[in-house]
Fold Protein NDRG2.
Amino acid sequence: MAELQEVQITEEKPLLPGQTPEVAKTHSVETPYGSVTFTVYGTPKPKRPAILTYHDVGLNYKSCFQPLFQFGDMQEIIQNFVRVHVDAPGMEEGAPVFPLGYQYPSLDQLADMIPCILQYLNFSSVIGIGVGAGAYVLSRYALSHPDTVEGLVLINIDPNAKGWMDWAAHKLTGLTSSIAEMILGHLFSQEELSGNSELIQKYRNIITHAPNLANIELYWNSYNNRRDLNFERGGDVTLKCPVMLVVGDQAPHEDAVMADSGGQPQLTQPGKLTEAFKYFLQGMGYMASSCMTRLSRSRTASLTSAASIDGNRSRSRTLSQSSESGTLPSGPPGHTMEVSC
């Protein structure tokens, strides 16, 4: 497995008082399914996993995760963990367009690329953060490599394959809408798109004018051809690690969630997501001394511990109920935390 590229870059963002610029190293490695590019921030910490992210369709690691990881309260977390941002093949900045007829990897094959990344970096375990298609990829990886995944944060995941009705609707939409508009409809709700906020304008421009739009369409097609993950409560197919499920109140596939966030909560509510992530890490035994701020004072935030990834909305343990102690009671192996924001 040979290294194709290594570039040092300095992250461009406003610095907090006393904070030094992060140095990022971008690498590309060959896998059985083609080359994959990823960017590493920080240095490995003893006895701590890496945070590994995987973005959604139409985005890359920067456009998907930068608002979250540049958020002020997130700095305490990233100082304690090395992080690896994976770009799906052909999604990295400056990626050349794949030749006509190129066979893009399936989502299962994208998951099978991750061991090559960890082997190259000599990392033994990760905490994954995935959005949409990226959440599916990380879930598939965790099912096949459970010993290397300590936890998962899954944002707007759809674990189900498309049914016949979905396929029919997708084909009809394709007759009247461009690829860019279909992907925007995947990322944001119709209410958000109709409102045409500054955020929507920004991402519409990013996707519509993307020089690698043909590559994005290939990733989109792989997502629409995904297999069912077949999660079962108490069955053989289940995630063995702690899981934090996150969904925005205007996510296209979510009906009953709370207010304040749109279809992409890592973009619109990085503060709430950061606070929930701190609770999640504390439940796993990390950052025990971290101070809770925003959400621990909020009686409207909803953060629950459920039993499995199948979407059970039990509200038996809310954040406001546990805010007095400042920590989230940890559940058994494989417990799931739900966040609506």
